[in-house]
Design goal:
This protein has about 240 residues and is mainly alpha-helical. The protein has 11 helices and 2 strands, in the order H-H-H-E-E-H-H-H-H-H-H-H-H. The protein has 2 domains: about 60 residues, Winged helix-like DNA-binding domain superfamily/Winged helix DNA-binding domain (Arc Repressor Mutant, subunit A), CATH 1.10.10; about 160 residues, Up-down Bundle (Four Helix Bundle (Hemerythrin (Met), subunit A)), CATH 1.20.120.530.
């Protein structure tokens, strides 16, 4: 038994911890190779099946990449793992869709302010083009929903904050059902036009590099969205 095995830590968990510590200690970066299964087996004094299981668990967490049977490599940060956990939490009613929207509001009021300051001209033009596409899209159409999600994702990417962008991207599978539900609360043509105009305003604040106006516009956007959802829930 390894001498530094923590209390109540399984051998697989021990190997996972040792691999993660090796990555940090050796200052490995994305794409760098790790030692082989045999190397960790000998170094840690555990069986090869234990190391293989630990590698599989780390790959599932997107910490290492073991694709195609090659030597394990350090993985890049991905939104997919968090996305799976969030979807599970919503399905099992550990968190609510409303809590997702409240969290998005906290994050996105800041990401848009950062995007207004840090965006490139190309990013600003892309965000504006997406908003204009929303204005042309048919009401309630899949195209409109896709553009809405793409706009918020593009704003997050333009913020140059990788962590915020990945967290916001992790919401995307949930938004594929939540965003259509939010649009259905816009029952009149006037309500639909108002939310389209708000998305155009978001794009304009980024184009003008006005961080304060961008933050305020996003806050107002979520005020309307969350308010409409609560009103819809009360009616039902």
């Amino acid at each position: 038994m390894p001498s530094d095995l923590h209390h109540e830590e399984t051998r697989v968990q021990y190997v996972m911890r040792q691999v993660a510590e090796h990555i940090g200690r050796e200052r490995l970066r994305v794409g760098d190779e790790l030692p082989s299964e045999n190397s960790f087996t000998e170094r840690l004094g555990v069986s090869r099946p234990v190391v293989r299981e630990a590698f599989g668990a780390l790959a599932a967490l997107n910490i290492i990449d073991t694709a195609n049977g090659r030597r394990p490599r350090v993985s890049a940060l991905s939104s997919q793992t968090l996305s799976i956990s969030l979807d599970h939490a919503v399905r099992t009613e550990q968190i609510s869709v409303l809590q997702i929207w409240e969290t998005r509001r906290c994050l996105e009021t800041e990401t848009i302010a950062l995007a207004a300051v840090r965006r490139t001209d190309e990013e600003a033009e892309r965000i504006r083009a997406i908003a204009e596409g929303m204005a042309r899209a048919e009401r309630g159409s899949p195209e409109l929903i896709g553009l809405d999600i793409a706009l918020h994702k593009s704003i997050a990417e333009a913020s140059r904050n990788t962590l915020m962008a990945k967290i916001i991207a992790s919401f995307e599978p949930l938004l594929e059902s939540a965003v259509p539900a939010a649009w259905r609360t816009r029952r009149t043509g006037e309500e639909h036009a108002a939310i389209i105009q708000k998305h155009l305003e978001l794009a304009d604040t980024i184009m003008r590099r006005d961080a304060d106006a961008a933050r305020q516009a996003m806050d107002e956007h979520f005020d309307r969205a969350v308010g409409a959802m609560l009103a819809e829930a009360a009616r039902n």
